[in-house]
Amino acid sequence: MSIGEMLAATVPMVRTLNLEYLETTPERAVLALPDQGDFHNHIGGPHAGAMFTLAESASGAIVLAAFGDQLSRAVPLAVSAEIAYKKVALGPVTATATLGRPVADVVAELDAGKRPEFPVAVAITREDGAVTGEMTVIWTLRPNS
Fold this sequence. Notes:
Blueprint: H1 3-10, H2 12-17, E1 20-24, E2 29-33, H3 48-67, E3 74-85, E4 93-99, H4 103-111, E5 117-126, E6 131-143
Antiparallel strand pairs: 1-2, 2-4, 3-6, 4-5, 5-6
């Protein structure tokens, strides 16, 4: 089962918004939000909450791809998120997430008994490639008790 299939099966918001997992690797996660009238805002584009969920979901996908082998000893948790809406988004949008720290550095902190934190940067783009939003999610790997 792929990360996208697993998240679609276990995270209700992923199914609600019909998010599509286009790529999920430890280097990059790319998700798409189809153009759906039920999730439009007052100007006919995707609602800000739907774009937030798309971007946060992309950040979670890359975290699972990068640190899935650590799940037996730590649980990934989002610590904080900040989003900036840059341009009007109309039609389908795509979120591309990238890790802000090398995987080996984060795992080394976990190995040392620490609770590592790391940023995930997400760019939200529309079909013409214009960046409509940017999000940074700070994640942690909380060691199991």
